[in-house]
UniProtKB/TrEMBL annotation:
<keyword id="KW-0687">Ribonucleoprotein</keyword>
<dbReference type="InterPro" id="IPR002677">
    <property type="entry name" value="Ribosomal_bL32"/>
</dbReference>
<keyword id="KW-0689">Ribosomal protein</keyword>
<dbReference type="GO" id="GO:0006412">
    <property type="term" value="P:translation"/>
</dbReference>
<dbReference type="GO" id="GO:0015934">
    <property type="term" value="C:large ribosomal subunit"/>
</dbReference>
<dbReference type="GO" id="GO:0003735">
    <property type="term" value="F:structural constituent of ribosome"/>
</dbReference>
<dbReference type="Pfam" id="PF01783">
    <property type="entry name" value="Ribosomal_L32p"/>
</dbReference>
<comment type="similarity">
    <text>Belongs to the bacterial ribosomal protein bL32 family.</text>
</comment>
<protein>
    <recommendedName>
        <fullName>Large ribosomal subunit protein bL32</fullName>
    </recommendedName>
</protein>
<dbReference type="InterPro" id="IPR044957">
    <property type="entry name" value="Ribosomal_bL32_bact"/>
</dbReference>
<dbReference type="InterPro" id="IPR011332">
    <property type="entry name" value="Ribosomal_zn-bd"/>
</dbReference>
């Protein structure tokens, strides 16, 4: 069985563990109709369009 030769310091151990829990900021893309930022692969909350088609009717 493999056994570590030296004790791993708490700082080194914590550095390794901390990278696992980092969250990424969500990616945004511009709506083709209105140019607002929206989440990719979702209906635009501003104008209601998805892939050039009106999915949700929004009043202007």
């Amino acid at each position: 069985m493999a056994v570590p030769k030296r004790k791993i310091s708490k700082a080194r151990r914590d550095k390794r563990r901390s990278s696992v829990w980092k969250l990424d900021a969500p990616a945004f893309s511009k709506c083709t109709q209105c140019g607002e930022l929206k989440m990719p692969h979702r209906v635009c909350p501003n104008c209601g369009f998805y892939k050039g088609k009106e999915v949700i009717k929004k009043e202007a």
